[in-house]
Amino acid sequence: MSENTRGCSNSSCTKESCAGCEHSKESMLEQLNQYSSIKNVIGIVSGKGGVGKSFVTAMLAVLLNRKGYRVGILDADITGPSIPRMFGINGKASANEFGLLPEETVNNIKIMSVNLLLDQEDSPVVWRGPILAGTVKQFWTDVVWEELDYLFIDMPPGTGDVPLTVFQSIPLDGIVIVSSPQDLVSMIVKKAYNMAKLMNIPILGYVENMSYVKCPDCGKEIPIFGESKLGEIASETGVDILGRIPIDPVLASLVDKGEFERFSCDYLTGAAEHIEKMYEIKA
Ligand SMILES: Nc1ncnc2c1ncn2[C@@H]1O[C@H](COP(=O)(O)OP(=O)(O)OP(=O)(O)O)[C@@H](O)[C@H]1O
Which Gene Ontology MF annotations are present (predicted)? Predict the structure, then answer.
């Protein structure tokens, strides 16, 4: 296959596939909007949908915002966007001559999501893969984020075409992999791990969501999805576990009310500190 047909712009590249190729990583990166400057870009990834990726994205964004950093969330989960709802945002994004303007939460976290562009938030996004990926790219190239210390990207679930394009188009400083304790998910965690390795993207750590439920009467922790396998995967892959989150009805209700910023738990305090240290190293 010639370089041109597979879209690699590096003339010295002879590789058959763009996956994991350093040449392609450089050549396929999109330019950030010229009125934006972002110090750290962190992707929140899961091998499959429904494990709480958006939940973890929102929690980390709020924790870093509380530490005084300028934070944004790019909702790249185009077909299942839930970020605006969690923060009670249901207005429409506006635009000016410099690009699309993100909406802001009560505490000034900037948010861009396809739901801010749809006429109705319950309209389905029935788009083909390249359009989905193109929309995510536009959230990077056309949104006026201005100055951010952290941009968290709620990645599309899975390891298919859309997440692959996002990995190749946006210069991620690191990813956090979210999982839940089921066996099936553990196998899928490794898919996410292997994809990040293939793409040479640093893995900051794992977060396990829905780890247990706390009995409201006796406080006992009940592992309703079974015992976690994440410890084994963590030592096998040499990646840290950054935190574990139980199923918490208080958090679920804050999500439903669009008041997620008001949570007061400390399940991911250690994870936020880890990410903050990364920032100190880069600053
Ligand atoms: N630890 C938790 N406690 C209570 N509710 C939770 C928890 N984690 C997730 N939820 C709820 O479960 C639902 C699914 O979570 P979320 O949208 O974050 O999953 P997701 O992995 O982003 O899904 P998808 O990839 O399909 O978009 C949401 O309503 C969320 O509020």
Answer: ATP binding
Query: Is 53 among the annotated ligand-binding positions?
Result: yes
| Ligand 1 centroid – CA 5 distance (Å) | 40
Distance CA 265, CA 245 (A): 10
pLDDT in tens, 198-211: 888 999 999 999 99
Instruction: Spell out the domains of the chain, with CATH numbers in brackets.
Output: 1-30 (no CATH), 31-282 (3.40.50.300)
**Is 219 annotated as contributing to ligand binding?**
no
Q: Give yes or no for residue 50 CB within 6 A of ligand 1.
A: yes
Nearest ligand 1 atom, CA 48: 25
String of DSSP letters for 88-130: T--S--EEETTEEE-EE-TT--EEE-GGGTSSSTT------HH
Check pocket membership of 259 for ligand 1, CB cut-off 6 A: no
24-42 residue pLDDT tens? 555 688 899 999 999 999 9
Mutate to test the pocket of ligand 1, among 56, 75, 79, 82 (most ligand atoms within 8 A of CB): 82
Q: Token pair for residue 80?
A: 């299942």
Find all residues with CB under 8 Å of 277, minimum gap 6, and list them.
none
DSSP conformation class of 33: P
For residue 35, the one-letter residue type is Y
* 49 in a labelled binding site: yes
CA distance 193 to 201: 10
Interface confidence (ipTM) of the complex: 0.95
